[in-house]
Structure formats: structure tokens, C-alpha cells
Amino acid sequence: MSEAWKPITAITMGDPAGIGPEICVDTILSREIAEVCRPFVIGSQAVMEKAAACKGLTLKFNRIAKPAEAKFEYGTCDILETGDYDTDSLEWGKVQKLAGQMAVDFIYKSIDLGLAGEIDAVSTAPINKQAIKLVGVKEPGHTEMYQVRTNSRYALTMFSCHKLRVFFVSRHMSLVDACKFATKEVVLQDVIDIDYELKKVGIDRPKIAVAALNPHGGDNGLFGTEEITDLIPAVKAAQERGIDCVGPCPADSVFHIGKSGVYDAILSLYHDQGHIACKTLDFEKSVTLTFGLPFIRSSVDHGTAFDVAGKGVAQGNSMIESTRVVSEYAAMQHNKAQKG
Predict the structure, then answer these.
(1) Tens digit of pLDDT for each residue in 190-202?
(2) What is the pTM of this model?
(3) Which of 43, 235, 322, 334 is the right S-S partner for 287, CB 3.0 to 4.6 Å?
């Protein structure tokens, strides 16, 4: 029997002054990751060497110019560098223009490789938003950078946490603006896109629950009318398209019900509504995936942790989970495409 197909997964090192390099070391040294994908790092060997040293770990390196040159041997970090940087000037735990430039270069390189079809998935270590602003990046974060750079119509954010798949109508938006943004048209389009993306990974008829906005789902207008004016019409319109969609479901129970696998996906109406549910269930197993790009991208859901960077105490559990999950979804996409 032939060995199962494994995706080529690029791991971007993130801000080199944060914990990204350390958690990338842990990820490359994870046997679990070696079993589910063919991983390599887009980053800096010099910084990775310092990160390994501060953790008391040994890691071999294989410098590559393209993924096709990677060995994909456990214990060896295939690393693709994006430039000749003065890494000696970098300081752990500080916002620096050079660190921002390197982080951006790693991201852009992963996009170039994805558009060229040389990789199947990307797992991104955290970046510092202040640092990338110092080099002129206008987008607020990873997701927007990937969407704009790939010229994708949409970039659907999904939280993966055990059996929960949580998508978001909005994320980086004030709560007041997020409530106004969740219109019938926006919610309906999100449900259509979720249905399409989940079918691409082999879920033939996804069951999608739309979370309510108001307490008790508005209680027939007693606690708000958004369910009546926008959410119920959006769900009905989705059903008329043949999509298995239910809701709006009261947000204080829909995630509890969903964690057992009753729904294939839940559409959260704003950032904290879904984030709190997933992170309370399991912080380290909560990872972000981005659908709608020419390739699947994932990320840890924590920051650069400047306060502990370079101290050798950062643990790569979330980065390992991010890389594992995105690789599994890339394999699901591949297998579905092979079946036609």
C-alpha cells in the first residue's frame, strides 16, 4: 500500500524578536508534524540557531532556495531565507523595523510560493503589528495581507478547536460596528462561502449554525430586532439555496451544542463571541485557519510574547497544532480534488 500523500507546508518564522523562532524550533522537532506533512521554515537560520540554543536544543539546518530542494528529514530544518539581514542587531522582545521587515518578507515569500503552486499550506508564527507598520504595511494583520496579496475575493477566518469549526462575520472591528455589519446580505454570503469551502474539504452537506446577536436570540423582538430583520431572513435565503443552515441560535448555547459535533460549522457574528468560546474550551488547541486563498493558511492565536522571547521558556504546542491542523485540511482538500 502506497504511503499517504502529505502536503508541503511552509512555516513562516514570524517576528524574529518574538517567540516565533522558538516555537518554530519545537514544531520542526515534532514527530507528529513530520508524520502529517513535509514542513520547512521560511525564516533566518541565524535567528533559528539562537532560538534553539536558548532552549537547549540541537537542530541541523539545510539551506534551500526553493521547496523542491528540501530534504524533509526529521531532525533537520529545511530553511528558506529571504535576504541577507543584520541579525546581530536584533534584540529579543523589542519592536524593531528590521524585525518587521523580516516578518513581512517571510509572509510575502510564502504567498509567492503558494501562488506558484510550490506549497500546499502555510502555518504562520506571530507578527508584531507595530513592527510591520514601521515598514509601511497598511493591512492590520496576517489575514488581510494574504487576501490582498493573493487578490482573493474573500478570506474566511475559521477557528478550529477540537470538534468546533467557528467562522466569523467580522473580527477586527469595534463591537458597535460589528453589530451593524452583520446584515442579511453579509451573513448570507458568509454562509454560502462556508458551504463551498467545507465541501472542498470533503464535507458533502455541511450543517451550518448561525449564532444569534441578542440575548435569547432577541426573544421575538423583546431584546433587539436584528434576528427578525436580518438573521432569520439570511438563514431562510440560505435554506432556499439548498444549504443546510439553522438559526439564529442563541449564542449562550450554540457553542456548547456544537462542541459535540452536532454542527459542521458555526458562524459567529463578531470577534469575541466565537473567540471566548473556543479559547475557554482549549486555548492551546484554538488555531486560526484562513479559507478562500489559493492555499490554506493557519496561525497560532497568540502574540509575539515579547516578555518571554529569547528566554527558552516558550512552548510550541499552539504552533504544532496550527501546523498539524492546516496540513490535515490541505490533505482533505487534496483527497477531495482527487476524487473529483
Answers:
(1) 999 999 999 999 9
(2) 0.91
(3) 322
